[in-house]
Specification:
There is one protein chain. The chain is an alpha/beta fold. Helices cover 36% and strands 13% of the residues. It has one domain (25-313): Protein of unknown function UPF0759 (TIM Barrel, Alpha-Beta Barrel), CATH 3.20.20.410. It has helices at residues 23-29, 66-73, 89-102, 115-120, 127-137, 160-168, 184-187, 189-201, 239-258, 276-291, 310-313; strands spanning 39-43, 76-79, 108-111, 147-150, 176-179, 205-206, 208-210, 226-233, 263-270. Strands 1-9-8-7 form a four-stranded parallel sheet. Helix 6 (160-168) links the parallel strand 4 (147-150) and strand 5. The chain is globular and about 50 Å long.
Length: 314
């Protein structure tokens, strides 16, 4: 993921402090009580990384079998693969079968809306591709998690009516989180309030993207009592900084859980994904320790903390 990427020499100047909660968060969680067993889904954005061979995948695993191995370690994936074309039902059934055969952790696929819908049609006259998309992802069955709708950097508040019209015509029972990137959604106070009020009205979520170069996207607005966070780390050379950022998220999520947050989706990205499992495992450890997440730790073939193995790992 290159969104929000800054040069290594610029990272020290980035203020990673998490902002205060937004106004909509207070409204969404008002009067709620802590959930007895909130759900946690922690994963990555892709499974097809050859660098994960001899790290979390057995050395001789074929690429066609990477998903079979991925679902043994994680209980979810932010499925970007379906963004580039509307998936066909046969492919979805193939992926579902891999989860059925190899996952034992309530695995969920969280598919991205096709770019035909979001970036080419820009949500206008998108009924046909939307119906095709929904028909295909329905094949995930019990393995279908929330879908996420990402709009482009040039999709600003002037498109509010288009966005609302699209959102309100989606199936009521379809779990959806929306990611917006145009800066005016966050800097224009009126547009910001209108956006998050609308998402709350239709019971759709708002994605929080924590990337170094776009701190405005860390908007801290909850429109439903669930969160979908896309965390973008900066690689092993900045591990201490990334781990500290995870620690800050643990503290904030704890406050939301105490106020009634029911479900957490937390997806790990890096600009180079080769060591993302290490960042993900740290996240799992901290969520288990401080948030009682009960997520299974990743089973590394080699100890990721053993520097003598770095040549084998990477």
């Amino acid at each position: 993921m290159d969104f929000g990427k800054v040069g290594a020499n610029e990272l020290r100047a980035v203020d990673f402090t998490l902002p205060e909660d937004g106004k909509q968060t207070a409204i969404t969680l008002a009067g709620a009580k802590p959930v007895k067993d909130p759900a946690f889904y922690i994963g990555c954005a892709k499974w097809g990384r050859k660098e994960w061979l001899n790290m979390i995948y057995p050395p001789k695993t074929k690429e066609a079998d990477f998903l079979d191995e991925y679902v043994k370690h994680f209980n979810s994936i932010e499925l970007n693969a379906v963004f580039y074309s509307i998936p066909n039902a046969e492919l979805i059934r193939k992926w579902r079968a891999k989860a059925e055969e190899n996952a034992s952790n309530g695995f969920l696929f969280c598919p991205k809306f096709s770019r035909t819908i979001s970036h080419i049609k820009r949500l206008k006259d998108a009924e046909v591709p939307t119906d095709l998309y929904l028909s295909s992802i329905h094949e995930f069955g019990q393995f279908l998690g929330p879908c996420f709708l990402q709009l482009g950097d040039n999709f600003g508040p002037k498109n509010f009516d288009v966005l609302e019209n699209y959102i309100k015509h989606l199936p009521i029972d379809l779990e959806v989180f929306v990611e917006l990137r145009h800066e005016d959604w966050f800097s224009d106070h009126a547009a910001r309030a209108q956006l998050f009020e609308m998402l709350a009205k239709y019971k759709k979520g708002a994605i929080i993207t924590d990337a170094s170069g776009r701190r405005d996207c860390v908007h801290m607005e909850l429109t439903i009592p669930e969160i979908f966070i896309r965390f973008v780390g900066n690689g092993q050379e900045h591990k201490d900084s990334d781990f500290a950022r995870i620690d800050d998220w643990v503290v904030r999520i704890k406050t939301w859980l105490d106020k009634g947050l029911a479900k957490v989706y937390f997806f790990l990205h890096q600009h180079d994904e080769k060591d993302t499992p290490i960042l993900a495992n740290y996240t799992i450890e901290q969520f288990n320790k401080h948030l009682s997440a009960k997520a299974a730790p990743i089973k590394f073939i080699n100890d990721p903390n053993d520097l003598t193995n770095q040549g084998e790992l990477f």
